[in-house]
Amino acid sequence: MTQFVDWDLAVATAGTISKAGPRVSYDEAAEVVGELRRLTDEAAGHVVRTTGLDSKVSHPPVRVVDRADWASTNLYGLRDVMTPLMERALAGREPSALAQSVGSRLTGVQAGTVLGYLSGKVLGQYEVFSGEPGNLLLVAPNIVEVERRLGAEPHDFRLWVCLHEVTHRTQFTAVPWLRQYFMDQVGEFVDAARADSEQLVDRIRRGVASLADAVRSPESRASVLDLVQTPAQREVVDRLTALMTLLEGHADYVMDAVGPRVVPSVEEIRSKFNRRREAANPVERVIRKLLGIDAKMRQYAEGNKFVTALVDRVGMDGFNRIWSSADTLPLLAEITDPDAWLRRVHGADA
Question: What angle do CA 182, 294, 225 make, to 5 degrees?
Answer without folding.
Answer: 60
